[in-house]
Amino acid sequence: MSLLPDDGSPWGVAPELAARLAGVAAKYLDYAVKFTCTETARNARFDDGEAKKETSKRYGYLLLRGDGQTILEFRQKMKSDGTVTTTEVNDAEAFPPAYAWVFLFSQANQPYFAYRERGDRFEGYDWVRIFEFKGAIPYTDGRDIRQWDGVVLVDATTLTPVEIRAEPGHQQERLKVLFSRWSQSFNIVGGRVGPKPIGFSGRVMFQTRRDQLTFPTQLRYSSFRAITSKSTEPTEASTREYSAYQFFKTETNERALDQKP
User: How far is Cα 251 from Cα 164, in angstroms, rounded to an integer?
Assistant: First the structure.
């Protein structure tokens, strides 16, 4: 997964811009407990590049505040008629939740990321600014956004996220090393020792607006296997869609991003 070719531009953003981005992230901390929505979780497993097994589930979804800036997901089982039960469900991803990405530029996270701006463009009806980011924490379990590198499109006026594409930090270098080790491993009866290396990618879309903030509408994490030094094949894809938002104690200027003002 190639995010953006390196143009050689220097890393870093101006202190004033960094402060503005951190201010926007701070607003999201308050809004984390001001909404509920429906989460539709789909998972597909692939065999020889084709989806072979798919599942789909729906949950009542909300967020809870933990210590400090910790945000916890809370899911409740949803019946076929759309009503939510009192049964809590544990079905978290092995990667960061969608809402965790709104804190990409938070004051707490800025010391753990390198950022640089890569211009602006129109994305649909939105004028967006493009930023690259690199996390400083080595990739282990993938649950912390600081373990990821990527590209974020932010609304040029509000500086709220519109789309994020990410991959584990230094993934390309890691996969090359792992594939080289695998290809040189001992051959037993025509096969190599151990599985081929696995890579990951993530994408988050923010297509609902409320009170000059954007909220996640789709999260997709995918895994793939390196089959040669230059080609891959999909192994699994998990998609979560967030709809039917209900906000509490907020203003009333909600609109979808795909709607004209």
Answer: 26
Contact predicate 178/157, CB 8 Å = no
Q: What is the DSSP letter of 19?
A: H
C-alpha pair distances (Å), 261 with each of 69, 73, 257: 33, 32, 9
- Cα–Cα distance between 129 and 244 in angstroms, integer? 28
pLDDT greater at residue 58 or residue 6: 58
Q: Is the dihedral of CA 60, 61, 64, 70 positive or negative?
A: positive
Give bridge partners of residue 113 from the DSSP assignment.
Answer: 135
Contact between residue 203 and residue 237 where contact means Cβ atoms under 8 Å apart:
no
Q: How far apart are CA 130 and CA 156, in angstroms?
A: 9
Each residue's pLDDT tens digit, 82-117: 899 988 999 999 899 999 999 999 999 999 999 999
Q: What residues contact residue 95 under an 8 Å CB cut-off, 6+ apart? A: 142, 143, 200, 202, 221
Other Cβ atoms closer than 10 A to 229: 10
Query: Cβ distance 225 to 198 under 8 Å?
Result: yes
Q: Strand pairing partners for 151?
A: 132, 165
d(CA 148, CA 100) in angstroms, rounded, equals: 12
pLDDT in tens, 151-203: 999 999 999 999 999 999 988 888 877 777 767 665 655 555 566 778 899 99
